[in-house]
């Protein structure tokens, strides 16, 4: 196994970030500075900043992997590994995983991934009816009429968006909670009122929250979170 994959599989960071750690001289193998592309043998001792790698394994009692990722800007939600910056290689999981839904390349925040390819469509149907919460920064002051208009629904893609919840966060920021996921929905809705989205971050899907998860990092869903998606444990 290559060194950057081992570091990524531990959940410490992505493969790209692992390469940056190696280049910075922060990784050692058997007490010696590591090199880019280094191959490991069984029993090799790998340290990052002098510390052993965290152990991250599939949750006990599960046949499949279900994870929450804080997707950084610039990562594309595709399983096509020919696409530069694809989400699969960014996560670098040892199992084959699939994103549930999408976030635009220029958006960031919470997205779910699973190794259970047979159930992705079911999860998509589930996600499309759950609340999804976003924090949005725009290019001009957020006014009451703008928030009210967004909440009522906006015609995009030839259809009227479902009513949603909106609230002002700051002079140039607002919160929006949707129950659908049309392509570039928030950006197009905002544009209909003359606003340009400068930053968009999803922080919640149903009862699953991003919390303090740092950009680029991922974690396994808890049993409580997974039960809100798949109530039948035999599906896990």
Account of the protein in words:
This protein is of the alpha+beta class. It has helices at 3-9, 15-23, 87-91, 120-127, 144-152, 185-191, 223-229; strands at residues 27-29, 32-33, 46-48, 51-52, 66-71, 98-100, 108-114, 132-138, 155-156, 159-160, 165-170, 173-178, 197-205, 208-209, 218-220. The chain folds into three domains: 3-52, RNA-binding S4 domain (Structural Genomics Hypothetical 15.5 Kd Protein In mrcA-pckA Intergenic Region, Chain A); 66-128 and 207-235, Alpha-Beta Plaits (2-Layer Sandwich); 132-205, Alpha-Beta Plaits. Strands 5, 6, 7, 8, 11, 12, 13, 14 and 15 form a nine-stranded mixed beta sheet that branches. Strands 2-1-3-4 form a four-stranded antiparallel beta sheet. The radius of gyration is 20 Å and the shape is globular. The mean pLDDT is 89. Helix 1 packs across helix 2. 22% of the residues lie in helices and 27% in strands. The two termini are 28 Å apart.
Task: List the SSEs and their pairings.
Blueprint: H1 3-9, H2 15-23, E1 27-29, E2 32-33, E3 46-48, E4 51-52, E5 66-71, H3 87-91, E6 98-100, E7 108-114, H4 120-127, E8 132-138, H5 144-152, E9 155-156, E10 159-160, E11 165-170, E12 173-178, H6 185-191, E13 197-205, E14 208-209, E15 218-220, H7 223-229
Parallel strand pairs: 7-13
Antiparallel strand pairs: 1-2, 1-3, 3-4, 5-7, 5-15, 6-7, 8-12, 8-13, 9-10, 11-12, 13-14
């Amino acid at each position: 196994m290559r060194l950057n994959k081992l570091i990524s599989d531990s959940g410490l960071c992505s493969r790209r970030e692992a390469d940056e750690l190696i280049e910075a001289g922060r990784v050692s193998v058997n007490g010696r500075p590591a090199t880019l592309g280094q191959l490991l043998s069984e029993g090799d001792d790998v340290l990052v900043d002098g510390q052993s790698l965290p152990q991250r394994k599939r949750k006990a009692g599960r046949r499949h992997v279900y994870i929450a990722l804080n997707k950084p800007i610039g990562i594309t939600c595709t399983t096509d590994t020919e696409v530069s910056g694809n989400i699969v290689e960014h996560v670098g999981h040892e199992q084959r995983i699939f994103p549930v839904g999408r976030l635009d390349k220029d958006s960031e925040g919470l997205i779910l991934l699973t190794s259970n390819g047979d159930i992705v469509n079911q999860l998509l149907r589930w996600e499309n009816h759950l609340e999804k919460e976003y924090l949005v920064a725009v290019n001009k002051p957020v006014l009451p009429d703008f928030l009210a208009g967004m909440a009522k629904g906006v015609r995009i893609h030839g259809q009227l968006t479902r009513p949603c919840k909106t609230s002002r966060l700051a002079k140039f920021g607002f919160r929006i909670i949707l129950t659908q996921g049309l392509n570039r929905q928030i950006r197009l809705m905002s544009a209909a009122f003359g606003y340009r989205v400068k930053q968009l971050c999803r922080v919640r899907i149903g009862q699953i929250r991003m919390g303090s998860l740092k950009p680029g990092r991922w974690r396994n869903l808890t049993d409580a979170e997974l039960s809100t998606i798949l109530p039948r444990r035999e599906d896990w």
